[in-house]
Structure prediction request, 307 residues.
Amino acid sequence: MTQPPKYLTGDSAAINEFLDKFDVFLLDCDGVLWSGDHLFDGIVETLEMLRARGKRIVFVTNNSTKSRPDYQKKLTALGIPSDVEEIFASAYSSAIYISRIMKLPAPKNKVFVIGESGIESELRTEGVPFLGGTDAALRRDITPEDFSGLADGSLLDPDVGIVLAGLDFHINYLKLSMAYQYIRRGAKFLATNLDSTLPMSQTFFPGAGSISIPLVNMTGQTPLALGKPSQAMMDAIEGKFKLDRTRTCMVGDRLNTDIQFGIEGGLGGTLAVLTGVSKKEHWEAADAVAVPAYYADKLSDLRAATS
Prediction:
């Protein structure tokens, strides 16, 4: 039977023991540090405390709508000091995988993007050609001419070898139809992440995983996901930061991404916080996808540590 997680809130001795076990903290953002643009109380001071104790912080997010520089701007605007190299987002992970792992030969290496500017920015940085994404020409209703052009291929770019699906705030029938036609013609099907929901404004909205579900339904394929809990992302993080997995803790709010990511990655520990998606009853269920090693009501509870 899986060991029940240690509850840290209000227990200074347990928090001190917890902090002493780790040198690196991988922090999810949405649902841990903030919800939408609402920063949770005490987050800035908690991160300052961790840094003051010599802990390394890496911001690991599945939200693909922002590039790393965009994320740094958000962190700065919320009063959180950061370096762009401390940020590891699913858009960046996807671009790295496409450019450095897949290495499809040009010109058949073009990516059809379902998603926002964060994906485009990271692909551009890696020198990966793409189309779709934020192209305003695709933000419209489908026409009879589109049906004909997609059916005979005249509206498709023959150099597209990859479909990358992320969170797209302008998803529509035309984009899904184009992505489907590319995949059925042999394009590799990738997803930035498979989160079903997005924490925002202290509630939930459709996540990137919900955007790609119609394509999964149509093609019968499950995309290779490059965000948490994908171990391709963990391997990339380990390679970039040269971390010791046994001295690293994953902190998150979602069992099937954050906590599963840390457990499958063989990290020294996982900490679940109750400010986002998953609650205590989720890991206490018999069919729980993952059980954290520790949990706290909120990340700022770690400030109860004694010096």
